[in-house]
Description:
It is an enzyme of class 2 (transferase). The chain is α/β, with parallel strands linked by helices. It has helices at 79-84, 106-112, 125-137, 151-154, 175-181, 201-211; strands at residues 3-6, 9-12, 30-38, 43-51, 55-60, 63-68, 94-97, 117-122, 144-148, 160-165, 182-195, 216-228, 231-240.
Amino acid sequence: MKWVRIGDIIVLNRDVEDPERFLEMPGVRGVLLVEGISGPLRRPRVRVLAGECTETIHRENGCLFRIDLSRVMWSRGNINERARIPGVVEDGETVVDMFAGIGYFSIPVAVHSNPGRVHSIEINPDSFEFLKSNIKLNRVEGVVEPHLGDCRSIAPELDADRVIMGYVGTTHHFLEAAMECVNEGGVLHYHETVPENIMFSRPIKRIERAAHPRRVSVLDRHIIKKYSPGVWHVVLDVRVH
């Protein structure tokens, strides 16, 4: 059995006979079992095993995130990447977060960097509600501008020095919109789940195809985590010339 604490809630990956024992931990108010994620909006299917709490405030990397785990997925595997990105954002940059969720990347960038503007796009109305709440909670209303809707229609209307594509599954379907958004010399952070034998070759080919006739150069690349047997979640930082 694996478990993780998110705010004052314990989240399990499988059922247990005595979930109430977790309520004895200091500050824990609820125990949940995540049974899966469904649909293009990635809505969680959860079961409350103990306590009555599904909403919490989670602290990560000096930022606060209000979230209801029965309505919105918390992405646990990207913690190192969420800490890395604010360190590469340059002063005054306009950042577009194409899959903002509740602000996983947008909030740390606004809190720990000095961007000119962060445009946070989210299509899930539940996630968007928490995104707006987290902008206020972290007092970055003057920096982060939330947008509700499909990033394929919203991003091309924006001009970005840096584009964050922190979503996996069908991320390559959104590359053309990202290329319409990113300025000359801008940077793209592109996430993808890839079979091990083409771990970095397929993502760069997809990026080059979407960027044509512009050129791209790889600045950095990272393995985020193992996604499934033989498949890895990776991110590439590329500059678009």
